[in-house]
Design a protein that fits this description.
This protein is of the alpha/beta class. It has two domains: 2-102 and 222-321 and 482-517 and 525-545, 3-Layer(bba) Sandwich (FAD/NAD(P)-binding domain), CATH 3.50.50; 171-208 and 324-478, Glucose Oxidase, domain 3 (2-Layer Sandwich). It is 25% helix and 21% strand. The chain has 14 helices and 23 strands. The strands form six sheets. Strands 1, 2, 3, 11, 12, 13, 14 and 23 form an eight-stranded mixed beta sheet that branches. Strand 2 (13-19), helix 1 and strand 3 form a beta-alpha-beta unit. Helix 1 runs parallel beside helix 14 and helix 4 (128-138) packs across helix 14. The two termini are 24 Å apart. 51% of the residues are buried. The structure holds flavin-adenine dinucleotide. Residues 19-25, 43-46, 90-93, 97-99, 101-105, 243-244, 282-285, 287, 291, 480-481, 514-515, 525-528, 530 line the site of flavin-adenine dinucleotide.
Protein backbone atom coordinates (compact mmCIF):
# COMPACT_ATOMS: atom_id res chain seq x y z
CA UNK A 1 0.00 0.00 0.00
CA UNK A 2 1.14 3.54 -0.66
CA UNK A 3 0.86 5.84 2.36
CA UNK A 4 1.00 9.63 2.40
CA UNK A 5 1.36 10.05 6.17
CA UNK A 6 3.73 8.22 8.49
CA UNK A 7 0.96 8.07 11.11
CA UNK A 8 -0.92 5.64 8.81
CA UNK A 9 1.89 3.05 8.93
CA UNK A 10 1.18 0.14 11.24
CA UNK A 11 4.70 0.40 12.72
CA UNK A 12 8.27 1.35 11.98
CA UNK A 13 10.06 -1.99 12.15
CA UNK A 14 10.52 -3.96 8.93
CA UNK A 15 12.70 -6.76 7.56
CA UNK A 16 13.94 -4.54 4.74
CA UNK A 17 13.99 -0.79 4.31
CA UNK A 18 14.47 0.62 0.83
CA UNK A 19 15.59 4.27 0.83
CA UNK A 20 14.30 5.77 -2.43
CA UNK A 21 11.24 4.58 -4.36
CA UNK A 22 12.75 5.19 -7.77
CA UNK A 23 13.57 3.09 -10.81
CA UNK A 24 15.64 0.49 -8.96
CA UNK A 25 14.10 0.79 -5.48
CA UNK A 26 10.61 -0.28 -6.56
CA UNK A 27 11.99 -3.33 -8.42
CA UNK A 28 13.68 -4.48 -5.24
CA UNK A 29 10.60 -3.82 -3.08
CA UNK A 30 8.37 -5.69 -5.52
CA UNK A 31 10.61 -8.74 -5.85
CA UNK A 32 11.29 -9.07 -2.12
CA UNK A 33 7.60 -8.92 -1.26
CA UNK A 34 6.93 -11.88 -3.57
CA UNK A 35 7.92 -13.70 -0.38
CA UNK A 36 5.00 -13.02 1.96
CA UNK A 37 7.30 -13.46 4.97
CA UNK A 38 9.39 -10.38 4.08
CA UNK A 39 8.01 -7.07 5.34
CA UNK A 40 9.33 -4.18 3.25
CA UNK A 41 9.12 -0.42 3.76
CA UNK A 42 10.00 1.96 0.92
CA UNK A 43 10.76 5.56 1.92
CA UNK A 44 10.40 7.98 -0.99
CA UNK A 45 11.17 11.67 -0.57
CA UNK A 46 9.01 12.80 -3.48
CA UNK A 47 5.34 12.82 -4.33
CA UNK A 48 3.08 10.08 -5.65
CA UNK A 49 2.99 9.56 -9.43
CA UNK A 50 -0.71 8.77 -9.42
CA UNK A 51 -2.77 11.17 -11.52
CA UNK A 52 0.23 13.09 -12.84
CA UNK A 53 -0.93 13.37 -16.45
CA UNK A 54 2.35 14.83 -17.74
CA UNK A 55 4.08 11.70 -16.52
CA UNK A 56 1.47 9.40 -18.07
CA UNK A 57 1.29 11.05 -21.51
CA UNK A 58 4.56 10.33 -23.32
CA UNK A 59 4.40 13.51 -25.45
CA UNK A 60 4.03 15.86 -22.48
CA UNK A 61 6.98 14.84 -20.31
CA UNK A 62 8.68 18.21 -20.89
CA UNK A 63 6.12 19.85 -18.59
CA UNK A 64 7.63 18.06 -15.59
CA UNK A 65 10.90 20.00 -15.76
CA UNK A 66 11.80 23.41 -14.52
CA UNK A 67 11.08 24.23 -10.94
CA UNK A 68 8.26 21.76 -10.19
CA UNK A 69 7.30 19.55 -7.24
CA UNK A 70 8.22 16.52 -9.38
CA UNK A 71 11.87 17.55 -9.49
CA UNK A 72 14.72 17.97 -7.04
CA UNK A 73 15.51 21.07 -9.13
CA UNK A 74 19.28 20.59 -8.96
CA UNK A 75 21.77 22.74 -10.80
CA UNK A 76 25.40 21.89 -11.48
CA UNK A 77 28.47 23.79 -10.40
CA UNK A 78 29.93 25.97 -13.19
CA UNK A 79 31.24 23.53 -15.83
CA UNK A 80 34.70 24.56 -16.96
CA UNK A 81 34.50 22.47 -20.17
CA UNK A 82 31.20 24.14 -21.09
CA UNK A 83 32.26 27.78 -20.89
CA UNK A 84 31.55 27.92 -17.17
CA UNK A 85 27.82 27.41 -17.65
CA UNK A 86 25.64 26.33 -14.72
CA UNK A 87 23.19 23.73 -15.99
CA UNK A 88 20.00 22.38 -14.54
CA UNK A 89 20.37 18.69 -13.68
CA UNK A 90 17.03 16.87 -13.64
CA UNK A 91 16.37 14.18 -11.02
CA UNK A 92 12.82 13.07 -10.33
CA UNK A 93 11.29 13.75 -6.93
CA UNK A 94 8.41 11.33 -7.31
CA UNK A 95 7.52 7.68 -7.00
CA UNK A 96 9.17 5.77 -9.82
CA UNK A 97 12.12 8.18 -9.71
CA UNK A 98 13.56 9.15 -13.06
CA UNK A 99 11.57 6.39 -14.80
CA UNK A 100 8.52 8.59 -14.10
CA UNK A 101 9.89 11.57 -16.02
CA UNK A 102 12.60 10.33 -18.36
CA UNK A 103 12.66 10.20 -22.15
CA UNK A 104 11.49 6.54 -22.11
CA UNK A 105 14.23 5.28 -24.46
CA UNK A 106 14.71 1.58 -23.85
CA UNK A 107 18.33 0.77 -24.69
CA UNK A 108 20.37 -1.89 -22.96
CA UNK A 109 23.92 -1.13 -24.02
CA UNK A 110 26.34 -3.55 -25.63
CA UNK A 111 27.32 -7.05 -24.58
CA UNK A 112 30.85 -5.61 -24.31
CA UNK A 113 29.64 -3.16 -21.63
CA UNK A 114 28.43 -5.93 -19.36
CA UNK A 115 31.34 -8.25 -20.07
CA UNK A 116 33.60 -5.38 -19.01
CA UNK A 117 31.63 -5.05 -15.73
CA UNK A 118 32.16 -8.78 -15.16
CA UNK A 119 35.90 -8.41 -15.82
CA UNK A 120 36.27 -5.34 -13.62
CA UNK A 121 34.43 -6.89 -10.68
CA UNK A 122 35.51 -10.51 -11.15
CA UNK A 123 31.83 -11.47 -11.05
CA UNK A 124 30.51 -13.44 -14.06
CA UNK A 125 26.96 -12.68 -12.92
CA UNK A 126 27.28 -9.19 -14.47
CA UNK A 127 28.29 -10.56 -17.90
CA UNK A 128 25.94 -10.12 -20.85
CA UNK A 129 24.95 -13.78 -21.07
CA UNK A 130 23.91 -13.83 -17.43
CA UNK A 131 22.37 -10.35 -17.14
CA UNK A 132 20.14 -10.94 -20.18
CA UNK A 133 17.86 -13.07 -18.01
CA UNK A 134 17.31 -10.01 -15.82
CA UNK A 135 16.59 -7.72 -18.77
CA UNK A 136 13.94 -10.30 -19.62
CA UNK A 137 12.55 -10.33 -16.08
CA UNK A 138 12.04 -6.58 -16.35
CA UNK A 139 10.79 -6.25 -19.91
CA UNK A 140 7.30 -6.89 -21.26
CA UNK A 141 7.21 -6.28 -25.01
CA UNK A 142 3.83 -4.75 -25.70
CA UNK A 143 1.89 -3.73 -28.80
CA UNK A 144 2.53 -0.18 -30.04
CA UNK A 145 -0.33 2.25 -29.41
CA UNK A 146 -1.53 2.07 -33.04
CA UNK A 147 -1.27 -1.75 -33.10
CA UNK A 148 0.62 -1.71 -36.40
CA UNK A 149 2.46 -4.80 -37.59
CA UNK A 150 5.91 -4.69 -35.96
CA UNK A 151 7.45 -7.50 -37.95
CA UNK A 152 10.77 -6.33 -39.37
CA UNK A 153 11.04 -3.54 -36.77
CA UNK A 154 12.61 -5.57 -33.96
CA UNK A 155 13.87 -9.06 -33.20
CA UNK A 156 11.46 -10.86 -30.86
CA UNK A 157 14.06 -13.52 -30.01
CA UNK A 158 16.06 -11.01 -27.94
CA UNK A 159 13.04 -9.80 -25.98
CA UNK A 160 10.59 -10.98 -23.39
CA UNK A 161 6.82 -10.58 -23.24
CA UNK A 162 6.67 -11.85 -19.65
CA UNK A 163 8.34 -9.09 -17.64
CA UNK A 164 6.85 -6.16 -15.75
CA UNK A 165 7.76 -2.90 -17.51
CA UNK A 166 6.14 -2.38 -20.91
CA UNK A 167 8.41 -1.75 -23.90
CA UNK A 168 7.06 -0.92 -27.35
CA UNK A 169 7.88 0.42 -30.79
CA UNK A 170 6.71 3.89 -31.88
CA UNK A 171 2.92 3.99 -31.71
CA UNK A 172 2.18 6.73 -34.22
CA UNK A 173 2.98 6.94 -37.92
CA UNK A 174 5.21 9.69 -39.36
CA UNK A 175 5.21 8.23 -42.90
CA UNK A 176 7.47 10.67 -44.76
CA UNK A 177 10.05 10.77 -42.01
CA UNK A 178 10.06 6.98 -41.46
CA UNK A 179 10.44 6.31 -45.14
CA UNK A 180 13.35 8.71 -45.54
CA UNK A 181 15.21 7.54 -42.43
CA UNK A 182 14.96 3.90 -43.52
CA UNK A 183 15.78 4.72 -47.15
CA UNK A 184 19.00 6.39 -45.91
CA UNK A 185 20.13 3.03 -44.50
CA UNK A 186 19.93 1.72 -48.08
CA UNK A 187 21.60 4.72 -49.69
CA UNK A 188 24.42 5.00 -47.10
CA UNK A 189 24.64 1.43 -45.81
CA UNK A 190 28.29 1.57 -44.84
CA UNK A 191 27.92 4.37 -42.34
CA UNK A 192 24.27 3.76 -41.39
CA UNK A 193 23.47 0.04 -41.77
CA UNK A 194 19.98 -1.01 -40.69
CA UNK A 195 20.06 -2.97 -37.44
CA UNK A 196 16.89 -4.97 -36.86
CA UNK A 197 17.35 -4.73 -33.11
CA UNK A 198 19.86 -2.48 -31.39
CA UNK A 199 19.06 -4.19 -28.06
CA UNK A 200 20.58 -7.55 -29.03
CA UNK A 201 23.91 -6.79 -27.35
CA UNK A 202 25.25 -5.59 -30.71
CA UNK A 203 23.79 -2.10 -31.02
CA UNK A 204 25.80 -0.70 -33.94
CA UNK A 205 23.68 0.58 -36.83
CA UNK A 206 20.35 2.32 -37.19
CA UNK A 207 17.20 0.77 -35.76
CA UNK A 208 13.71 1.51 -34.55
CA UNK A 209 13.54 3.18 -31.17
CA UNK A 210 12.06 1.07 -28.38
CA UNK A 211 10.41 2.92 -25.49
CA UNK A 212 9.09 2.15 -22.02
CA UNK A 213 5.53 2.72 -23.15
CA UNK A 214 2.54 0.38 -23.00
CA UNK A 215 -0.99 1.12 -24.18
CA UNK A 216 0.22 4.55 -25.31
CA UNK A 217 1.12 5.41 -21.70
CA UNK A 218 4.46 5.71 -19.88
CA UNK A 219 5.44 2.51 -18.14
CA UNK A 220 7.56 3.52 -15.15
CA UNK A 221 8.77 1.48 -12.22
CA UNK A 222 5.86 3.04 -10.32
CA UNK A 223 3.15 2.08 -12.84
CA UNK A 224 4.64 -1.38 -13.40
CA UNK A 225 6.30 -2.64 -10.21
CA UNK A 226 3.73 -0.82 -8.05
CA UNK A 227 0.69 -1.77 -10.12
CA UNK A 228 -2.39 -2.41 -7.98
CA UNK A 229 -1.87 -6.18 -7.97
CA UNK A 230 1.39 -5.52 -6.10
CA UNK A 231 0.34 -2.66 -3.81
CA UNK A 232 -2.34 -5.00 -2.48
CA UNK A 233 0.36 -7.11 -0.86
CA UNK A 234 0.09 -6.77 2.90
CA UNK A 235 3.86 -6.95 3.35
CA UNK A 236 4.65 -3.99 1.02
CA UNK A 237 4.41 -0.49 2.46
CA UNK A 238 5.50 2.61 0.56
CA UNK A 239 5.64 6.00 2.27
CA UNK A 240 5.92 9.13 0.13
CA UNK A 241 7.08 12.58 1.35
CA UNK A 242 9.63 10.67 3.46
CA UNK A 243 13.21 11.87 3.06
CA UNK A 244 15.96 9.70 4.49
CA UNK A 245 18.74 11.74 6.05
CA UNK A 246 21.07 9.09 7.42
CA UNK A 247 21.71 5.57 8.63
CA UNK A 248 21.52 5.19 12.41
CA UNK A 249 22.65 2.95 15.28
CA UNK A 250 25.95 1.67 13.91
CA UNK A 251 27.46 -1.31 15.71
CA UNK A 252 30.36 -3.61 15.04
CA UNK A 253 29.63 -7.26 14.26
CA UNK A 254 32.63 -9.47 13.52
CA UNK A 255 34.67 -6.51 12.26
CA UNK A 256 31.93 -5.10 10.04
CA UNK A 257 29.60 -2.17 10.59
CA UNK A 258 25.89 -2.90 10.92
CA UNK A 259 23.30 -0.09 10.99
CA UNK A 260 20.06 -0.63 12.88
CA UNK A 261 17.87 1.59 10.74
CA UNK A 262 17.40 4.91 9.01
CA UNK A 263 16.37 8.39 10.09
CA UNK A 264 13.88 10.15 7.88
CA UNK A 265 11.80 13.26 7.94
CA UNK A 266 8.25 13.94 6.94
CA UNK A 267 7.29 17.55 7.12
CA UNK A 268 9.03 19.05 10.13
CA UNK A 269 9.12 15.76 12.07
CA UNK A 270 11.90 13.18 12.28
CA UNK A 271 11.41 9.43 12.61
CA UNK A 272 13.51 6.30 12.82
CA UNK A 273 12.61 3.10 11.00
CA UNK A 274 14.32 -0.15 11.97
CA UNK A 275 15.47 -2.84 9.57
CA UNK A 276 15.95 -6.33 10.99
CA UNK A 277 17.45 -7.89 7.84
CA UNK A 278 18.87 -5.30 5.42
CA UNK A 279 18.87 -1.64 4.48
CA UNK A 280 18.93 -0.94 0.75
CA UNK A 281 19.99 2.46 -0.56
CA UNK A 282 18.23 3.20 -3.88
CA UNK A 283 18.21 6.99 -3.76
CA UNK A 284 20.00 7.34 -7.11
CA UNK A 285 23.39 8.62 -8.19
CA UNK A 286 22.92 11.93 -6.36
CA UNK A 287 20.81 10.80 -3.41
CA UNK A 288 22.71 7.66 -2.39
CA UNK A 289 26.16 9.23 -1.75
CA UNK A 290 24.35 12.04 0.05
CA UNK A 291 22.86 9.57 2.56
CA UNK A 292 26.18 7.69 2.80
CA UNK A 293 28.20 10.78 3.62
CA UNK A 294 25.68 12.06 6.18
CA UNK A 295 26.06 8.63 7.82
CA UNK A 296 29.85 8.86 8.02
CA UNK A 297 30.56 6.64 5.00
CA UNK A 298 32.90 8.34 2.59
CA UNK A 299 36.30 9.95 2.25
CA UNK A 300 37.38 10.82 5.78
CA UNK A 301 39.41 13.78 4.54
CA UNK A 302 36.15 15.28 3.28
CA UNK A 303 33.94 14.16 6.18
CA UNK A 304 36.23 15.39 8.97
CA UNK A 305 36.22 19.11 8.09
CA UNK A 306 32.43 18.87 7.84
CA UNK A 307 32.27 17.60 11.42
CA UNK A 308 30.92 14.19 10.40
CA UNK A 309 32.59 11.32 12.32
CA UNK A 310 33.85 8.68 9.90
CA UNK A 311 32.22 5.29 10.32
CA UNK A 312 33.69 3.76 7.14
CA UNK A 313 36.50 5.42 5.23
CA UNK A 314 35.55 4.78 1.59
CA UNK A 315 37.29 7.47 -0.51
CA UNK A 316 35.41 6.51 -3.72
CA UNK A 317 32.01 7.66 -2.40
CA UNK A 318 30.59 10.44 -4.56
CA UNK A 319 33.59 10.62 -6.89
CA UNK A 320 34.15 9.86 -10.57
CA UNK A 321 30.57 10.23 -11.78
CA UNK A 322 29.90 10.04 -15.52
CA UNK A 323 27.23 11.24 -17.92
CA UNK A 324 26.85 11.55 -21.69
CA UNK A 325 27.01 15.03 -23.24
CA UNK A 326 24.05 15.90 -25.48
CA UNK A 327 23.25 18.51 -28.08
CA UNK A 328 20.69 18.95 -30.87
CA UNK A 329 21.12 20.02 -34.46
CA UNK A 330 18.06 21.06 -36.44
CA UNK A 331 17.22 21.09 -40.14
CA UNK A 332 14.31 22.95 -41.67
CA UNK A 333 12.13 20.77 -43.96
CA UNK A 334 9.41 21.35 -46.53
CA UNK A 335 7.05 18.57 -45.43
CA UNK A 336 4.46 19.22 -42.77
CA UNK A 337 4.21 15.83 -41.07
CA UNK A 338 6.33 17.00 -38.14
CA UNK A 339 5.98 17.55 -34.41
CA UNK A 340 5.57 21.27 -35.18
CA UNK A 341 2.31 20.50 -36.97
CA UNK A 342 1.01 19.68 -33.49
CA UNK A 343 3.00 21.87 -31.13
CA UNK A 344 2.50 25.00 -33.25
CA UNK A 345 -1.18 24.48 -33.96
CA UNK A 346 -3.56 24.79 -31.02
CA UNK A 347 -6.39 23.00 -32.80
CA UNK A 348 -4.24 19.97 -33.69
CA UNK A 349 -2.69 19.99 -30.22
CA UNK A 350 -6.14 19.90 -28.61
CA UNK A 351 -7.27 17.17 -31.00
CA UNK A 352 -4.19 15.10 -30.17
CA UNK A 353 -4.85 15.56 -26.47
CA UNK A 354 -8.50 14.56 -26.90
CA UNK A 355 -7.50 11.51 -28.91
CA UNK A 356 -5.05 10.38 -26.24
CA UNK A 357 -7.67 10.92 -23.51
CA UNK A 358 -10.18 8.85 -25.43
CA UNK A 359 -8.06 5.92 -26.59
CA UNK A 360 -4.38 6.44 -25.63
CA UNK A 361 -3.54 6.71 -29.31
CA UNK A 362 -2.32 9.43 -31.67
CA UNK A 363 0.85 11.52 -31.60
CA UNK A 364 0.68 11.95 -27.81
CA UNK A 365 1.23 8.19 -27.41
CA UNK A 366 4.95 8.63 -28.05
CA UNK A 367 7.67 11.22 -27.62
CA UNK A 368 9.29 12.68 -30.75
CA UNK A 369 12.27 10.48 -31.65
CA UNK A 370 11.56 7.41 -33.79
CA UNK A 371 14.94 5.85 -34.64
CA UNK A 372 18.39 5.67 -33.14
CA UNK A 373 21.75 5.15 -34.82
CA UNK A 374 24.65 3.86 -32.71
CA UNK A 375 27.98 4.56 -34.39
CA UNK A 376 31.70 4.06 -33.86
CA UNK A 377 34.41 6.56 -34.68
CA UNK A 378 36.63 5.73 -37.63
CA UNK A 379 39.37 3.48 -36.17
CA UNK A 380 41.94 5.63 -37.98
CA UNK A 381 40.76 8.83 -36.27
CA UNK A 382 43.57 11.06 -35.09
CA UNK A 383 42.07 11.08 -31.59
CA UNK A 384 43.33 7.54 -31.02
CA UNK A 385 46.92 8.82 -31.27
CA UNK A 386 46.39 10.52 -27.90
CA UNK A 387 43.54 8.61 -26.30
CA UNK A 388 42.95 4.96 -25.62
CA UNK A 389 39.56 3.95 -26.95
CA UNK A 390 37.24 4.29 -23.93
CA UNK A 391 34.56 2.01 -25.39
CA UNK A 392 34.09 -1.48 -23.99
CA UNK A 393 34.79 -3.25 -27.30
CA UNK A 394 34.39 -3.35 -31.05
CA UNK A 395 30.61 -3.78 -30.86
CA UNK A 396 30.19 -0.72 -28.65
CA UNK A 397 29.25 2.72 -29.98
CA UNK A 398 30.95 6.05 -29.30
CA UNK A 399 28.07 8.05 -30.73
CA UNK A 400 24.30 8.02 -30.63
CA UNK A 401 22.18 9.88 -33.17
CA UNK A 402 18.54 10.12 -32.18
CA UNK A 403 16.23 10.99 -35.10
CA UNK A 404 13.15 13.08 -34.53
CA UNK A 405 10.49 14.39 -36.94
CA UNK A 406 10.62 17.79 -35.28
CA UNK A 407 12.80 19.88 -33.04
CA UNK A 408 12.37 17.45 -30.19
CA UNK A 409 14.21 18.78 -27.19
CA UNK A 410 15.90 21.65 -29.02
CA UNK A 411 14.45 25.14 -28.64
CA UNK A 412 12.17 26.12 -31.51
CA UNK A 413 13.76 28.90 -33.57
CA UNK A 414 10.62 30.05 -35.36
CA UNK A 415 7.57 28.82 -37.22
CA UNK A 416 7.98 26.02 -39.75
CA UNK A 417 8.58 22.29 -39.85
CA UNK A 418 11.79 20.68 -38.73
CA UNK A 419 13.61 17.49 -38.03
CA UNK A 420 16.44 17.07 -35.60
CA UNK A 421 19.09 14.77 -34.37
CA UNK A 422 20.08 14.54 -30.78
CA UNK A 423 23.73 13.69 -30.40
CA UNK A 424 24.80 11.74 -27.38
CA UNK A 425 28.48 10.90 -27.09
CA UNK A 426 30.81 9.37 -24.56
CA UNK A 427 34.25 10.47 -23.32
CA UNK A 428 36.88 12.35 -25.27
CA UNK A 429 33.94 14.42 -25.97
CA UNK A 430 34.67 17.40 -28.15
CA UNK A 431 36.25 15.30 -30.86
CA UNK A 432 33.46 12.77 -30.76
CA UNK A 433 30.74 15.43 -30.75
CA UNK A 434 32.29 17.08 -33.80
CA UNK A 435 32.42 13.73 -35.58
CA UNK A 436 28.83 13.00 -34.54
CA UNK A 437 27.64 16.25 -36.08
CA UNK A 438 29.54 15.53 -39.30
CA UNK A 439 27.97 12.11 -39.42
CA UNK A 440 24.49 13.64 -39.09
CA UNK A 441 25.33 16.12 -41.82
CA UNK A 442 26.30 13.23 -44.12
CA UNK A 443 23.07 11.44 -43.21
CA UNK A 444 20.94 14.31 -44.47
CA UNK A 445 23.01 14.56 -47.67
CA UNK A 446 21.67 11.15 -48.78
CA UNK A 447 19.67 11.45 -52.02
CA UNK A 448 16.34 10.64 -50.36
CA UNK A 449 16.44 13.89 -48.33
CA UNK A 450 17.22 16.25 -51.17
CA UNK A 451 13.61 17.03 -52.06
CA UNK A 452 12.73 17.62 -48.40
CA UNK A 453 15.52 19.49 -46.63
CA UNK A 454 15.44 23.27 -46.84
CA UNK A 455 18.63 23.59 -44.83
CA UNK A 456 20.15 23.49 -41.36
CA UNK A 457 18.82 26.14 -38.98
CA UNK A 458 22.40 27.00 -38.02
CA UNK A 459 25.41 27.01 -40.29
CA UNK A 460 27.71 24.46 -38.66
CA UNK A 461 29.23 23.06 -41.83
CA UNK A 462 31.69 25.55 -43.24
CA UNK A 463 33.04 26.89 -39.99
CA UNK A 464 36.41 26.46 -38.29
CA UNK A 465 37.01 23.73 -35.74
CA UNK A 466 37.39 26.43 -33.08
CA UNK A 467 34.02 27.91 -33.97
CA UNK A 468 32.44 24.46 -33.93
CA UNK A 469 33.97 23.71 -30.54
CA UNK A 470 32.64 27.01 -29.22
CA UNK A 471 29.17 26.10 -30.49
CA UNK A 472 29.39 22.67 -28.84
CA UNK A 473 30.61 24.08 -25.52
CA UNK A 474 27.63 26.42 -25.51
CA UNK A 475 25.09 23.86 -26.69
CA UNK A 476 25.91 20.73 -24.72
CA UNK A 477 23.65 19.73 -21.86
CA UNK A 478 23.76 16.60 -19.70
CA UNK A 479 21.82 13.54 -20.86
CA UNK A 480 20.82 12.93 -17.23
CA UNK A 481 22.44 9.50 -17.36
CA UNK A 482 24.46 10.13 -14.21
CA UNK A 483 26.11 6.98 -12.85
CA UNK A 484 29.07 5.95 -10.76
CA UNK A 485 28.92 7.74 -7.39
CA UNK A 486 29.13 4.47 -5.41
CA UNK A 487 30.72 2.03 -7.81
CA UNK A 488 31.10 -1.70 -7.56
CA UNK A 489 34.57 -3.16 -7.73
CA UNK A 490 36.21 -6.50 -7.09
CA UNK A 491 35.81 -7.91 -3.60
CA UNK A 492 39.48 -7.31 -2.75
CA UNK A 493 39.92 -4.00 -4.64
CA UNK A 494 40.90 -1.06 -2.44
CA UNK A 495 38.81 1.41 -4.39
CA UNK A 496 35.08 1.19 -5.03
CA UNK A 497 32.15 1.34 -2.64
CA UNK A 498 30.34 -1.97 -3.03
CA UNK A 499 31.47 -5.53 -3.71
CA UNK A 500 29.96 -7.32 -6.71
CA UNK A 501 26.87 -8.45 -4.76
CA UNK A 502 26.31 -4.74 -4.02
CA UNK A 503 27.02 -4.93 -0.26
CA UNK A 504 28.93 -1.91 1.00
CA UNK A 505 32.59 -2.66 1.65
CA UNK A 506 33.21 -3.01 5.36
CA UNK A 507 29.49 -3.18 6.22
CA UNK A 508 26.95 -5.95 6.66
CA UNK A 509 23.33 -5.97 5.62
CA UNK A 510 23.68 -2.68 3.76
CA UNK A 511 23.42 -2.59 -0.03
CA UNK A 512 23.33 -0.03 -2.79
CA UNK A 513 20.98 -0.84 -5.64
CA UNK A 514 20.67 1.95 -8.19
CA UNK A 515 22.58 3.59 -11.05
CA UNK A 516 25.33 4.78 -8.72
CA UNK A 517 26.99 1.34 -8.78
CA UNK A 518 27.99 1.30 -12.48
CA UNK A 519 31.80 1.45 -12.59
CA UNK A 520 31.67 2.87 -16.14
CA UNK A 521 28.68 4.39 -17.89
CA UNK A 522 26.98 1.92 -20.25
CA UNK A 523 26.95 2.91 -23.93
CA UNK A 524 23.21 3.48 -23.70
CA UNK A 525 20.48 5.38 -21.92
CA UNK A 526 20.67 4.07 -18.41
CA UNK A 527 17.24 2.94 -17.24
CA UNK A 528 17.23 -0.55 -18.80
CA UNK A 529 20.60 -1.39 -17.28
CA UNK A 530 19.41 0.00 -13.93
CA UNK A 531 16.32 -2.21 -14.07
CA UNK A 532 18.46 -5.26 -14.86
CA UNK A 533 20.88 -4.52 -12.02
CA UNK A 534 17.96 -4.16 -9.62
CA UNK A 535 16.37 -7.41 -10.79
CA UNK A 536 19.61 -9.32 -10.28
CA UNK A 537 20.28 -7.65 -6.93
CA UNK A 538 16.82 -8.63 -5.68
CA UNK A 539 17.67 -12.24 -6.52
CA UNK A 540 20.94 -11.95 -4.60
CA UNK A 541 19.09 -10.69 -1.53
CA UNK A 542 16.52 -13.45 -1.77
CA UNK A 543 19.26 -16.07 -2.03
CA UNK A 544 20.85 -14.60 1.10
CA UNK A 545 17.68 -14.67 3.23
CA UNK A 546 15.62 -17.62 1.97
C1 LIG B 1 15.29 13.94 -17.72
C2 LIG B 1 15.80 12.54 -17.80
C3 LIG B 1 15.67 11.84 -18.99
C4 LIG B 1 16.16 10.55 -19.09
N1 LIG B 1 15.90 9.82 -20.21
C5 LIG B 1 16.19 8.51 -20.23
C6 LIG B 1 15.73 7.69 -21.29
O1 LIG B 1 15.04 8.14 -22.20
N2 LIG B 1 16.06 6.39 -21.27
C7 LIG B 1 16.83 5.85 -20.27
O2 LIG B 1 17.15 4.66 -20.33
N3 LIG B 1 17.26 6.60 -19.24
C8 LIG B 1 16.93 7.90 -19.18
N4 LIG B 1 17.29 8.66 -18.12
C9 LIG B 1 18.13 8.05 -17.07
C10 LIG B 1 17.39 7.04 -16.20
O3 LIG B 1 16.05 7.43 -16.03
C11 LIG B 1 18.11 6.90 -14.86
O4 LIG B 1 19.45 6.49 -15.08
C12 LIG B 1 17.49 5.86 -13.94
O5 LIG B 1 16.10 6.02 -13.89
C13 LIG B 1 18.10 6.00 -12.56
O6 LIG B 1 17.47 5.11 -11.67
P1 LIG B 1 17.86 5.09 -10.14
O7 LIG B 1 17.04 4.02 -9.51
O8 LIG B 1 19.33 5.02 -9.99
O9 LIG B 1 17.46 6.52 -9.56
P2 LIG B 1 16.07 7.28 -9.56
O10 LIG B 1 15.14 6.67 -10.53
O11 LIG B 1 16.37 8.72 -9.66
O12 LIG B 1 15.47 6.96 -8.12
C14 LIG B 1 15.93 7.55 -6.94
C15 LIG B 1 14.72 7.83 -6.06
O13 LIG B 1 15.17 8.10 -4.75
C16 LIG B 1 14.49 9.24 -4.24
N5 LIG B 1 15.36 9.83 -3.25
C17 LIG B 1 16.52 10.51 -3.45
N6 LIG B 1 17.05 10.87 -2.27
C18 LIG B 1 16.23 10.40 -1.30
C19 LIG B 1 16.26 10.45 0.12
N7 LIG B 1 17.24 11.06 0.79
N8 LIG B 1 15.24 9.85 0.80
C20 LIG B 1 14.23 9.22 0.15
N9 LIG B 1 14.15 9.18 -1.21
C21 LIG B 1 15.15 9.73 -1.91
C22 LIG B 1 14.23 10.10 -5.46
O14 LIG B 1 13.18 11.02 -5.23
C23 LIG B 1 13.92 9.05 -6.52
O15 LIG B 1 12.56 8.72 -6.54
C24 LIG B 1 16.83 9.95 -17.98
C25 LIG B 1 16.95 10.65 -16.79
C26 LIG B 1 16.41 11.92 -16.68
C27 LIG B 1 16.51 12.65 -15.37
Amino acid sequence: KVYEDVAQLPGLSYDFIVAGGGTAGLVVANRLTENSKFKVLVLEAGVSNVGVLDSEIPFLVGNLFGPTIYEWNYTTTPQSGLNGRVLSYPRAHMLGGCSSHNGMVYSRGSADDFNRYADLTGEPGWSWDQILLYFFKNEKISAPADHHNIQGQFNPSVHSTKGVTSVSLPGFDWPIFYHKVLQTTKELPEEFPFNLDTNSGKPLGLGWRQSTIGDGTRSSSATSYLASEFTQRENLHVLVHAQVSQLVDPSNVAGKVVFGGVRFSQGASQFTAKATKEIILSAGTVGTPNILMHSGIGDQTILKPLGIPTVLDLPSVGKGVQDHPFFSAVWSVNFTQTLESITQNTTRFDEAFAEWNKSHTGPFAMLGPTHIAWLRLDPNSSIFENFTDPSAGQDTPHIELSFSPGVGLAPLTGPGNFLSIGVVASDFDLFTLREALKSAQRFFKAPVWQDAIIGPTQNLENITTDALDAFIRNAVTPSSHLVGSAVMSARDAEDGVVIPDLLIKGARALRIIDASVFPIIPSAHTQAATYAVAERAADLIKQRWM
